[in-house]
Amino acid sequence: EAGVTQFPSHSVIEKGQTVTLRCDPISGHDNLYWYRRVMGKEIKFLLHFVKESKQDESGMPNNRFLAERTGGTYSTLKVQPAELEDSGVYFCASSPLTGGYTFGSGTRLTVV
Amino acid sequence: AQSVTQLDSQVPVFEEAPVELRCNYSSSVSVYLFWYVQYPNQGLQLLLKYLSGSTLVKGINGFEAEFNKSQTSFHLRKPSVHISDTAEYFCAVSEILRKTGKLIFGQGTTLQVKP
After folding, report:
1. Which residues of A touch B94 (CB under 8 A)?
2. Cβ of residue B108 closer than 8 Å to a chain A Cβ
3. Do A48 and B41 touch (CB under 8 A)?
4. Tens-place pLDDT, residues A43-53
5. Model confidence over B25-49: pLDDT tens digits?
6. Rounded to a whole number, what is the distance in angstroms from the first to the last CA of chain B?
7. Among residues A108, A105, A100, A101, which one has the least CA distance to residue A37?
8. Which of A77, B2, B6, B73 has CA 20 to 30 A from B31's CA?
9. Within its chain, how far is the Cα of B24 from the centroid?
């Protein structure tokens, strides 16, 4: 079984640019989560999809972040425009409705 | 609201020695408890979880943890560590009745196993 796949693994962009992170969950997993770890801090919840619907987006930092999940399959997280404080590692995880997370390896985003 | 505190940011230990990674949590509601491990360049992997029942939980790779409700702790232990246990370890909680399954993480503890 393929795991949770995230693209790209690393991204370096300039302040003010746009970046799109992608997450491919395990096939059949209806739950999809985004988390972020800023340097030196704890991993924080961003949002949760059930299929294509946003179940909880209480952790989204501001309106520069836009998450979508097309047809209940893969998900994208767009940051526009990126700021220096957006740097960190963005993790995606998926789970079936019965629970049990599988995390991806993360995307390391550096904004310079 | 919940919060998780991992009391040590780094724990150096010699190979074959025992280790304990400490985790305390705060919550006004009942929670599930988890320990995850992250090896370099990999995603987080579940080590073990406490949902209910016996307070001593055994996980993968010889790790175990004990849930102590009165002290709101969930410390992770291993009686004899290997070099391959070098990684970052995360304690996390999830509110039992919350539909979203959202995890609240601690700051992480880096376990450095020396030969």
Report:
1. none
2. yes
3. no
4. 999 999 999 99
5. 999 888 899 999 999 888 899 999 9
6. 41
7. A108
8. A77
9. 10
